[in-house]
Amino acid sequence: MSRANPQVNFRIPPELKEQLESAAKENHRSITAELVARLEQSFKNVIDPDQPVKTGSALTQQLGPKGIEPPGLIQQQLSELTKEVRELKEKIDNKK
Fold first, then answer.
1. For residue range 49-67, what is the model confidence (pLDDT) as tens digits?
2. First to last CA, the chain
3. How many Cβ atoms are within 10 Å of 47's Cβ, its own excluded?
4. Whose C-alpha in 11, 20, 46, 50 is 20 to 30 A from the C-alpha of 31?
5. Which three-class secondary structure string do you get for 21-85?
C-alpha cells in the first residue's frame, strides 16, 4: 500500500480483528492489504437490483469469473435458512 493513499481509522470487534489477522497471515498479506482485497471483492460481487437480469457472458462479468456469491455469504445464508427450518419444525412438532 502506498503511503499516499488516504488513511482510514475505525473500530472493529476483537473477534473480527482476530479473523482478519488470521486471514492476512494465511494469504501472506498485511492486514491492510487483506482489508483492501476483501473490500474490493465485496464490491465486485454486488448485483444492482435495478438492472435487468443478465445472461451469458454479461452475467459472468457482473458476478465475477466464478458466477457465484462469496463463500462466506453463502455459508451465512445457509446457516440462517437452517435455523429457520429448525424453528419451523419445532413449531410443527409442538402443535401435534
1. 666 655 455 555 555 555 5
2. 61
3. 12
4. 46
5. HHHHHHCCCCHHHHHHHHHHHHHHCCCCCCCCCCCHHHHHHHHCCCCCCCHHHHHHHHHHHHHHH
